[in-house]
Amino acid sequence: MAALRVRNVNLLRRRELITEAVADVNGHAVFGTPKTHQRRQVPVPRFLADELAAHVAGKAPADFVFTAEKGGLLHLRNFRRLSFDPAVRAASRDSPRTDYGTPPPPWPSPAAPTSKSCRPCSGTSRPP
Description:
Elements: E1 9-10, E2 15-18, E3 21-25, E4 28-32, E5 40-43, H1 46-56, H2 76-94
Antiparallel strand pairs: 1-2, 2-5, 3-4
């Protein structure tokens, strides 16, 4: 997503055209083709299209859709450190979690049936 440019976003059809990728190699951005070396279209969910339209409004076609906080290319290392990791920490503080990182169910789950509650097959044949 860091290499996505405004010209590759079609909000009328709610599609993004993936034509290039960017990798961080020793602190330098290296642009190339996506992993499959083929262009592909990705659907944009309806609820996101309006927000994305507002986000790209006023940007030039060659501009990146997602940029660093001060502009320019979004580097994964900085994005994780400055945005993603703090958001994950905040979300984990705000919602009750179990030891496995999933929220508890809103109701107790029913007990699993035991072999005592299972009925034996009533003379039906089973395939081998």
